[in-house]
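> call design_seq(struct)
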């Protein structure tokens, strides 16, 4: 089992920056990748970014490329999402998630945090 706790959300004006953190605990040695997702009111949850824990290779949604950066600190078992040039459409609850190693290719993100609110005003 992996436990995830997000922090760093808040309110910011358009064009500003925020840095989200996600601290992982428990069976973190089994984590293959960690990702960030977001969900705005009335909309479905969408993928934002992901990073492979060991290699550090990353992937981003097209809408955030060039603005957001995902990174990790192995010693702290923490993943970060640096968000720059924020837009009102970035307003959402942001969740971190962990994908475990598995022989089953259908297994995805099994563990989720409680989320942290990001509000961007115009």
């Amino acid at each position: 089992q992996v436990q995830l706790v997000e922090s760093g959300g808040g309110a910011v004006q358009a064009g500003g920056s925020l840095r989200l953190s996600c601290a992982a605990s428990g069976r973190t040695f089994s984590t293959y990748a960690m990702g960030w997702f977001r969900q705005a009111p009335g909309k479905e949850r969408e993928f934002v970014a992901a990073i492979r824990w060991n290699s550090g290779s990353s992937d981003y949604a097209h809408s955030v490329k060039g603005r957001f950066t995902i990174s990790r600190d192995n010693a702290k078992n923490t993943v970060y999402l640096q968000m720059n040039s924020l837009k009102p459409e970035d307003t959402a609850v942001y969740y971190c998630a962990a994908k475990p190693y598995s022989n089953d290719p259908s297994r995805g993100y099994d563990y989720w945090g409680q989320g942290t609110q990001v509000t961007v005003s115009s």
